[in-house]
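To whoever is on call:

I kicked off a structure prediction for a single chain this morning and the downstream step that reads the tokens threw a length-mismatch warning. I double-checked the sequence; it's 312 residues and nothing unusual in it as far as I can see. Pasting both halves so you can look.
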Amino acid sequence: MSNDPRQKFLKYVDNVPPPEELTALREGAEAALSKPLFFVCGALKSGTTWLQLMLDAHPEIACRGEGHLVNFLLPGLGEALHKYNNKIRFKNKNIFNEIEGFPRFAVPHHYALLQSAVGLLLAQYDGENIRFIGEKSPDNVLYLAMLGRIFPHARFLHAIRDGRDGAVSGWFHNLRVSKEWAISEFGGFAEFAEHYAQVWAEHLRTGREFGAQHPERYYEVRYEDLLSGGEAALSEILKFLGARIDKAEINNCLEASSFKNLAKGRGAGEEDCESHFRKGVEGDWRAHFDDQTLAAFRSHAGAQLDALGYGD
């Protein structure tokens, strides 16, 4: 076995792309970040995926997948920088203590690296016809203030749905992903609904507080408005983003993201508990909430339900 310390770095050497590719990646990241960016957010099962698919079908917009940039990527970068800084700190103190040491990463560098990393990721969606690039992660709603500072020209779409319908949809989502985990974690629907009420209320408060402070950058999208008047609702969203409003393109967006298309032929209201797109209707909570469950939900989120006009 070789003792040559260079051996463990050979895989890195073999993977280094040519300089022109690195230049192209850097330029692509800068080009992506220079375009109008937007972030989609909302509580679990509030329609963020539906909204994303609707927007991604517009020829000027790219918005796909979930990046979890703040809750996954940002701390991951922080851990790597912290590990590096510790090694350099040790070297500076114990070996080069008589001369000036090597610089270390500071807090602003962490966020600058996040910006660059996001640019590299979003550039993979870019194209000559794409004018707007979006990222959708439901948890973005908790980090709007941070995202707003890191991306000072970005806009934010907050998907809002009756929390009781969200609780029903979330429960069936959890059962589909892992019934054993859902039962072990919550016991049953009533317990989950009460937990969801607290999360839903907190997400709403956080998102709307940011919106009150930055109304020009924040727009609320009602799930129910998309159901009842998709063309008008989507037109207003595109107006907020600054994207082209064309009737034919809007109809294509609505068709591409229609429940029937996403559910592979099922109509809205035709339930399939094994599908991410389970039912696609409003008011389904009435079939699952009893009086006790509703009272528990309202004890945590009644103020938000009333403020949004979601009556019983």
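Update from on-call: the warning came from a stale cache, not from the record. Cleared it. Sanity check on the structure: Residues 7-307 form a domain with the Rossmann fold fold (CATH 3.40.50.300).
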